[in-house]
Every structure is written in C-alpha cells, then in structure tokens.
Automatic annotation (TrEMBL):
<keyword id="KW-0547">Nucleotide-binding</keyword>
<dbReference type="InterPro" id="IPR036390">
    <property type="entry name" value="WH_DNA-bd_sf"/>
</dbReference>
<dbReference type="Pfam" id="PF08279">
    <property type="entry name" value="HTH_11"/>
</dbReference>
<dbReference type="Pfam" id="PF03099">
    <property type="entry name" value="BPL_LplA_LipB"/>
</dbReference>
<keyword id="KW-0238">DNA-binding</keyword>
<dbReference type="InterPro" id="IPR004143">
    <property type="entry name" value="BPL_LPL_catalytic"/>
</dbReference>
<dbReference type="InterPro" id="IPR045864">
    <property type="entry name" value="aa-tRNA-synth_II/BPL/LPL"/>
</dbReference>
<dbReference type="InterPro" id="IPR013196">
    <property type="entry name" value="HTH_11"/>
</dbReference>
<dbReference type="InterPro" id="IPR003142">
    <property type="entry name" value="BPL_C"/>
</dbReference>
<feature type="binding site">
    <location>
        <position position="114"/>
    </location>
    <ligand>
        <name>biotin</name>
    </ligand>
</feature>
<dbReference type="InterPro" id="IPR011991">
    <property type="entry name" value="ArsR-like_HTH"/>
</dbReference>
<feature type="binding site">
    <location>
        <position position="185"/>
    </location>
    <ligand>
        <name>biotin</name>
    </ligand>
</feature>
<dbReference type="InterPro" id="IPR004408">
    <property type="entry name" value="Biotin_CoA_COase_ligase"/>
</dbReference>
<keyword id="KW-0678">Repressor</keyword>
<feature type="DNA-binding region" description="H-T-H motif">
    <location>
        <begin position="19"/>
        <end position="38"/>
    </location>
</feature>
<keyword id="KW-0805">Transcription regulation</keyword>
<protein>
    <recommendedName>
        <fullName>Bifunctional ligase/repressor BirA</fullName>
        <ecNumber>6.3.4.15</ecNumber>
    </recommendedName>
</protein>
C-alpha cells in the first residue's frame, strides 16, 4: 500500500495528489491513507499535507526498504521477494536460514547495517549504516556442483557493468570476487552454498558495495585499499538505485549462465572487464603462496598462471596481489 502511495506521489512530481484520488484508486478510507502517509513521514519522507489539495512529495530519504526498492524495479526474478532489516549480523546468515525454509529463488535479503558482515575465510566486512548496499540473493540454479563457484564471476560482470554505469568511471574485476576503481576495492562478493550429492540445493550470493562512504570514514586498516562509489563519482548516489541497477544487470546474465550450463559463454565479457590477467601476481592459496604471471581463465573460471620456470599452474581459489 505504501509503495503504491509513493508511486502515485512520484508520478506527479511537484504536484498535489488529492486524498480522494488515492482513496478511489486504492479502495480504502481517508483515515487509512493518512495513516500510511504518517508512516512514510516517520520513515523520513517529506510529504506536505494541505487541506482540500492533498499530498505532495517534497523529498525522499536514501533508504533500501522494500518500498523503495520495488519502485521502478524492472526484474522478473531477482528481488521479487524482499526482506529488509535495519540492522542484522550478516545478510548471508538470514538468507541461508530463509533458503533452508523454502524461500523462493531470487529472494533478496538486505540490511541498512551489518554488525558482523563477513568476507571470505572468516574475514570482516566493514558494513556501516546508511551508506552501503549489504545484500544477499537466494539462487537455486539447476546446475552440477562443479559450476557453483562460477556464479561469483558472473556476478562480477554484472557489478562491473552496473558500477561503471552508475559512476561513469570504468570499474575493473579482480579475480575472483573484487570490483575495483583505480586499484581500490569498492565491492566484494561472498558466495556460499548448500549442496546435496552433486546438485546445488541453493546458493547465497552476498554482495557488499560501498556507496556513500566518505574516504575518511573507512577504518585505518582498509582506508588505503578501499573506496566508495561516492568517492569515485564525487557525488552521493541513491542506494536503491544501486540495488536496482545491479539486479537489472545480473538477471539476464544469471539466466544465461543457467541456460548455458555454466560461465563459458560469458568468459570473453569477463576478460574485457578484468584487471588481473597479464599482471605478475602473488596468489595466497590454502596450499601456500605462488608467484607468477596471470595468463588466462578457463571456461570454469579457473585462473591459469605461468610460473617463473615457464610451467603452467591452475588456481581454483586464492587472494591475489599485484
Ligand atoms: C569479500 O571478502 O570481499 C566479500 C565481501 C562480501 C560482503 C557482503 S555484504 C552482504 C553479505 N553479507 C556478509 O556478511 N557478507 C556479504 P574478501 O575477499 O575476503 O575481502 C575481505 C577483505 O576486504 C577484508 O579482510 C578487508 O581487508 C577488506 N574489507 C573489509 N571491508 C571492506 C569494505 N567495506 N570495503 C573494501 N574492503 C573491505
């Protein structure tokens, strides 16, 4: 109901929408309309109410509530169900719980703030309130287990496209899960999965994007390696717009990945956005540290590096430095 009221107000920018018009199109009483307007005002929307004229939207807060995200979202799978929390430990945790309880594919879990946002291998992910996109998607691709990890690379393409579009500055993919601007990390992906036998039961695709974080607000340990969309673009960006743009870029790529049975047909586009290949790199893997030149990725998203003695080595998972 609130989403529809908001939509009606936004369809008449700068103009009043009469209480009567709202009552008629929503089929509810004037008191009910007023109650919803009051709730929107309490949430931070500035809505002017004038007797005999109606309601006029003056400004909207930068929210990532379901009401904001739905307004103008054009996807048909991702974000059809939205679960919003003001604060949470980690959106990946709630998404996993919902997935285990049968949540539909495409369910989006999003929070204004994470108390225990996490990266890979138990690392922390800085997730302050009102300034980032901290979200997780529940996916149920019918693919063999071996293809699950490739969703991270598919998502990286969508993010590179979306973040470039939003800032007007070229974003680059650092294998496997980082999106960078000018060597600094703006976004990370954390894919977690639940599988039985050889079949994926569900994937939880966690995405963290620094949106309106001033450079000086990053903690000292990441200040020199992190950046935000605002720092890159020079002006703040509405977080709901960031979410919508990412979902709209990801949906067709995700459908292609499922239809084609893997990441192979998207490999060339990944390479076009990547900033890893061609560099001399240090790869920290669970088995140890490897140094060499990043040559290519194969159709499974595995990184191929050339060692100093000319031999080739495949790397399945690592932290890369160059
Ligand atoms: C990642 O891990 O890059 C995955 C980040 C995923 C975050 C999302 S937010 C929604 C969902 N819910 C969660 O709890 N997580 C996901 P990794 O490659 O391991 O990088 C972690 C490292 O990045 C840390 O050790 C820091 O050095 C650095 N870091 C932490 N917070 C950062 C931030 N906000 N921006 C840039 N770098 C950060």
């Amino acid at each position: 109901m609130q989403a529809t009221i908001l939509q009606m107000l936004r369809e008449q920018p700068g103009d009043f929408v009469s209480g009567e018009t709202m009552c008629n199109s929503l089929g509810v009483s004037r008191t009910a309309i007023w109650k919803h307007i009051k709730e929107l005002q309490d949430a931070g929307y500035q809505i002017e109410a004038v007797r005999n004229r109606g309601y006029r939207l003056q400004s909207s807060p930068d929210l990532v509530t379901a009401v904001e995200l739905r307004d103008g979202l054009s996807t048909t799978l991702l974000g059809q169900s939205i679960v919003y929390r003001e604060t949470i430990d980690s959106t990946n945790n709630l998404a996993r719980e919902l997935a285990n309880n049968g949540a539909i594919e495409g369910t989006l879990v999003i929070a204004d703030e994470q108390q225990q946002g996490r990266g890979r291998r138990g690392r922390d992910w800085f997730s302050p309130p009102q300034s980032g996109v901290w979200m997780s998607l529940i996916l149920r691709p019918e693919l063999p287990l071996a293809h699950a990890a490739q969703i991270t690379l598919v998502t990286a393409i969508a993010l590179a496209r979306a973040l470039t579009r939003l800032t007007g500055v070229q974003a680059g993919i650092k294998w496997p899960n980082d999106i960078l601007f000018n060597q600094k990390k703006c976004c990370g992906i954390l894919t977690e999965m639940h599988a039985e036998f050889d079949q994926i039961h569900h994937l939880v695709l966690g995405i963290g994007i620094n949106v309106n974080i001033p450079q000086a607000d990053f903690p000292a340990d990441i200040e020199h390696i992190a950046t935000s969309l605002q720092a890159v673009k020079g002006t703040p960006i509405a977080r709901a717009k960031v979410v919508q743009t990412v979902l709209e870029e990801l949906e067709p790529l995700y459908r292609q990945y499922v239809a084609d049975g893997g990441f192979g047909t998207l490999r060339e586009e990944w390479k076009a956005h990547n900033i890893t290949l061609g560099n001399n790199i240090i790869a920290h893997t669970a088995q140890g540290t490897i140094e060499g030149r990043a040559l290519d990725i194969d159709e499974f998203g595995v990184l191929l590096i050339e060692l100093p003695d000319g031999a080739h080595k495949k790397i399945y998972s690592a932290d890369i430095m160059f």
